[in-house]
Specification:
- The protein has one domain.
- 78% of the residues lie in helices and 0% in strands.
- The protein contains 6 helices and no strands.
- The longest helix is centred in the C-terminal third of the chain and has 19 residues.
- The chain starts with 5 loop residues before the first helix and ends with a helix.
Length: 103
Amino acid sequence: MVVLNADRIAVVLLFIVDMDILSEAKLLVEGDRGEAYGHPAKKYELMAKIWSTILEKEITPQQVILCMLGVKLTREIIRHKRDNLVDLAGYALLLQQLSDEDI
């Protein structure tokens, strides 16, 4: 039996409706992922701590997101995929949210 949650329904709707990239990114960032993973600040603070330990240099949550933007830009340069653009918009939204919250 297939369980339908908001994320799965959103993906199905994306195939039915030609949703623009920015709307899709907002839906993904502000949808069930927040419930599943908690506030994005917590996730990126944890990632920053892990990266700081690995790199032996202080990394901020904003720097983590900037690096993720770099990964997606690289993928888009190598091969265009709509998903890359959606993720770029999503990371930009997350970066704005962290800046607004002054984290």
